[in-house]
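User: For a reading group we're discussing how well predicted structures match intuition. Take TF-B3 domain-containing protein. Before you show the prediction, I'll give you the sequence so everyone sees exactly what went in.
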Amino acid sequence: MPHPIMLFKKPLKPTDITKRLAIRTKSLESLPHLNGGHAVRLKVLYEGRAWPMVCSTRKQGYKKPVLSNGWIPFVRQNHLKVGDVVTLYKEGDEAGLQYRIEVDRATRVPSPNGNLGVPTPYKTKKKRGFKLI
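Assistant: Thanks. Here is the predicted 3D structure of TF-B3 domain-containing protein, as structure tokens, for the group to look at:
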């Protein structure tokens, strides 16, 4: 099986956990073809559950791809936070191409009053993964 190809790595921002996951335009060519449209449905498997999502682009002008419908329920149910890092990989084998996302949880740095403070996206404590099929 060929080695996975990393398409992008991104620390999550507030918009990524409240509205949609913005994807690098450069990665669009490695995602499923939109076949002349501006959106494609994806099934995302994570811990035995299929998560339907939509990868879409703007209809005119700058494409700006995003994972939208289905992304926010996934974020909420799996407790993703600002500063967590998602990495998207493209993998290929005899059965075809698939996409895999790993989530690295950001370490929350305690503030002087003992509360968990600002996440530090470069220190991670737990990896999780799911695949786009």
